Amino acid sequence: MKKIGIIMGSDSDMPVVQKAIDVLNEMKIPYEAHIYSAHRTPAEAAQFASEAADNGFGAIIAVAGMAAHLAGAIAANTVLPVIGIPCSSAAFGGMDALLSTVQMPSGIPVATVAVNGGANAALLASQILAVSDPELAEKLRERRQSAAQKVLEKDKELQQKML
Amino acid sequence: MKKIGIIMGSDSDMPVVQKAIDVLNEMKIPYEAHIYSAHRTPAEAAQFASEAADNGFGAIIAVAGMAAHLAGAIAANTVLPVIGIPCSSAAFGGMDALLSTVQMPSGIPVATVAVNGGANAALLASQILAVSDPELAEKLRERRQSAAQKVLEKDKELQQKML
Amino acid sequence: MKKIGIIMGSDSDMPVVQKAIDVLNEMKIPYEAHIYSAHRTPAEAAQFASEAADNGFGAIIAVAGMAAHLAGAIAANTVLPVIGIPCSSAAFGGMDALLSTVQMPSGIPVATVAVNGGANAALLASQILAVSDPELAEKLRERRQSAAQKVLEKDKELQQKML
Amino acid sequence: MKKIGIIMGSDSDMPVVQKAIDVLNEMKIPYEAHIYSAHRTPAEAAQFASEAADNGFGAIIAVAGMAAHLAGAIAANTVLPVIGIPCSSAAFGGMDALLSTVQMPSGIPVATVAVNGGANAALLASQILAVSDPELAEKLRERRQSAAQKVLEKDKELQQKML
Amino acid sequence: MKKIGIIMGSDSDMPVVQKAIDVLNEMKIPYEAHIYSAHRTPAEAAQFASEAADNGFGAIIAVAGMAAHLAGAIAANTVLPVIGIPCSSAAFGGMDALLSTVQMPSGIPVATVAVNGGANAALLASQILAVSDPELAEKLRERRQSAAQKVLEKDKELQQKML
Amino acid sequence: MKKIGIIMGSDSDMPVVQKAIDVLNEMKIPYEAHIYSAHRTPAEAAQFASEAADNGFGAIIAVAGMAAHLAGAIAANTVLPVIGIPCSSAAFGGMDALLSTVQMPSGIPVATVAVNGGANAALLASQILAVSDPELAEKLRERRQSAAQKVLEKDKELQQKML
Amino acid sequence: MKKIGIIMGSDSDMPVVQKAIDVLNEMKIPYEAHIYSAHRTPAEAAQFASEAADNGFGAIIAVAGMAAHLAGAIAANTVLPVIGIPCSSAAFGGMDALLSTVQMPSGIPVATVAVNGGANAALLASQILAVSDPELAEKLRERRQSAAQKVLEKDKELQQKML
Amino acid sequence: MKKIGIIMGSDSDMPVVQKAIDVLNEMKIPYEAHIYSAHRTPAEAAQFASEAADNGFGAIIAVAGMAAHLAGAIAANTVLPVIGIPCSSAAFGGMDALLSTVQMPSGIPVATVAVNGGANAALLASQILAVSDPELAEKLRERRQSAAQKVLEKDKELQQKML
Fold this sequence. Notes:
8 copies of one chain form a homooctamer.
Chain A lengths: L2 E6 L5 H13 L4 E5 L6 H11 L4 E9 L4 H6 L6 E6 L7 H8 L8 E2 L5 H13 L3 H29 L1
Parallel strand pairs in A: 1-2, 1-3, 3-4, 4-5
């Protein structure tokens, strides 16, 4: 099975990354996580991206805040699907990172998820691998059913409380 | 080869859809385009999504403006990767559609691209299929090289003009 | 008397829902509250909405945050008035939920109230029922007078403090 | 049948009002339209609102731009449901009017629809009257079906074009 | 000397009002503070405004948050200068109140100051009275000099710390 | 009678200034208009402001766009009331100018009106002079009545059209 | 004299670049302009930046829109001062480019100027070179005086028109 | 070596200033820090700026929040490079200060860095001095390498934790 690469711009992004890792572990998808900054270590970030396909990665998750160039910088160096997680920071609640991640110019897409959306980034990566992996697709469908079940159980609890 | 589904909420989204279609044609990726509204034909939209995997689709592109629920509504009914294109409308330049598309709750990701980003949505869909299709990956890499070449040629022209 | 349906996308929305319930209790209007997610349990949300009129509901309040599709998804499946409460979340203070709720396309309105506006949603639902219920209308007018009275009493206290 | 009141802050709002009138005519719902400004004729606006219930109105649509106080000023003087349409103006695409209309304090709700959402305001008013008018509810359901039908026909045309 | 009226929409605005009162006390300008809501007690707010000139007021400060209609509602009923203080609330940091206060339509101005700008509203009111009161103008100039002096003293302290 | 000073940062602001001049002419209030830039001619702007009270001015209107410092720079050099008109420019619809004008620090207020609000700035200036000029106050009241009359006449025309 | 490098992400940025070139020509500062995209030709952009100091450049102006990573990508590869011009595009008036350019993480600054601010970017570059070039500094001071003179002449014309 | 001037509008900006001072100390660049307000002490701010070049300064950092005019007011009085740090305040997360600082009119640039970006402002000032100071440029390159090294070490630690 292909691996998912997770690149974060700074170790302060680890809480968001952890949410992604939890999902990948749950889905039993192998991954590698790295700290590479688009601005402080641009060469390493570019190198990771350009070798990722050959190194067995199937998709890359990039996690960054503020002028969040990391996902775009990764995407510029690979044709693997790159998923961008914009992180919130103090000033603008993540609007800076969201626009820096999603508003990519024509030619180099970044698949952007919600601000701090670690779990969804990993689920999207899983869904991408599942396109050619029916077993993983089945696991994802089961996860959906289980999530639906939890909502319905919470609804049932609510009904009992309300009696 | 798996097909790409393109669902638009209204036929007024066709100019954005056309940019996606042009890329898919260029990449020789089969597709189906439909007009299904998350609000006016919710059942048809949900049905398309829930049967898409069985019907040979590998990813779905959803195109909508304003309170753009279409991508989320599609994503809620399939574990195929769903790519959302927020369309700009008169009032907020697409900020309403962007936030409605990207800020999905945990569990149901939508891979969001730039406002009106038809070409990038199709490229992202292509990249997703290319994860298990080395030939398509090669075509995407060639497209990148050709895009880079065009930039460098334009730079060369600029240098000559500046002499 | 017709019932008010309250649908929340997640049990984390309960504090906002509670403000609505308090008003409905005060107005002695029957209600049912449910947890149904537009994305995790889309079928249940749609079913509730499509059967709501037959099940004795007169209006539905939908409560959701982020890419808040719930009100729109409910509205797509009923011609009962649907009242949307956009909930604030960490990133954008509720702007994402507000735009996702209010910017509905032509044909499917959602009556949107303020961010986290639980009490006003229930008052609006009450006002809707009161259109054909003069007794309820009278109760609402009394509530207004009492609210006005409280403001004037606070003003009186202020005048005494200022002497 | 109860009438719908339509109050606009200025005759420049007429294009948005016309969209509401068209829907009310289609639904055969009687209405009265007035130009009353919250700021230039506050007394007339307040008087209209406070007498509206006695004058046979079932709901009021208020249409205004910029610091759009009109819906709130109407709502402050009646317990009829008040529907606010924020109008776009040059500076902020209607964000000023949207926030001025929707962010009402607890106690006085305004049912806000999309920027320039004339048709949806009238549909919402119709849905409110339809709560106690099964025939009107049926008409609204038929309108929904017809709208759905139009979407599906456009989809069919698209399929034929794509062959 | 003319009085300054201070109207707040809710007693929760008192901290902002207090900053205004402190300045008026410092300037020895008489004032009256009231709690009148544009929406809960519209008649009282309008009456206060329409009688303010005759009651010896020279300017009115209106303090409100969210869809902050209070300043506009006051201004609609008097030709005294009306100063609006937009108050911040949880959702949008005061952007809703700012736009609701400042974006007044042609004909009815509101002199808007910064979000939560209690002191500046009172200073502006003082400056308005000082147009025809040279002694007050002198006091305001002295306050400016004293403020400048404080800045320069802080700069001097900083220089000593930095040695 | 005291004069109104109108300072614009650039002659491109003249259309907004003209709306102010029209109102002052209508009110028969003397004025002087100048082009002084806060950034290109800071000394002249400061000098005008610091001498304005002695030169017979009663209030100053400052008109500027983008990082609109002009009103603040004028206000820093006088205790006359300073009215700021934020002008819209291409990028942000005037949000840059609005925030640069209204968000003044404690101590130096600027009375801010709506984006491009030339007429309201002049009306506010008139209202300020009218605090000590009952005849001008009467003129302003008459202007209000005439504006109200126009609204009511437009309403009457609308009623006739609707018959 | 050191050269100024001007890098634009796309030839569609040329109108903004031209404003910079005009100022550099006026200041008789040598420059080189290139089209290098942060995403389509990341290697060329990085190489230009990393060799710029050795190639006789004293500062680099980077011009880009949308998720404008170019200035940051250049800045990551040189310690020359990098000036970023965010370009406006259809969706958000340049807010995406502004935040992507200015919100750089600690360690890698980008000197950001106004949206589409071509002339100011070149003036800033000139001011940077002028720190160690008194003659250029003198030229810049003369340009300021001439700009001030133009403002004062326009003011004089205005006075004559107003007589 | 030329000095860096640091001007803050209020001593409450000291935490941001301290981050700049730390970098300048690290780079062994002499500096002077002052508290001068654009609005409370405009003359002192202007005088500092207009004499700065003659007093041995090579660049000026201006630090201010809200309607942050300080950097522009400094820039208007010198042709030294002026670096603006917009400070966040309660209401808008620094958007007011950012737009007030960066959106300067043509002719008077301000080199704007991120909200609260004290370290980057000092690094930019250092880079400006380094244009004509190869030793300082070398120090800056070393700082970059050391920052890159730290990122790579954190990545190494992460790899070990993940084993």
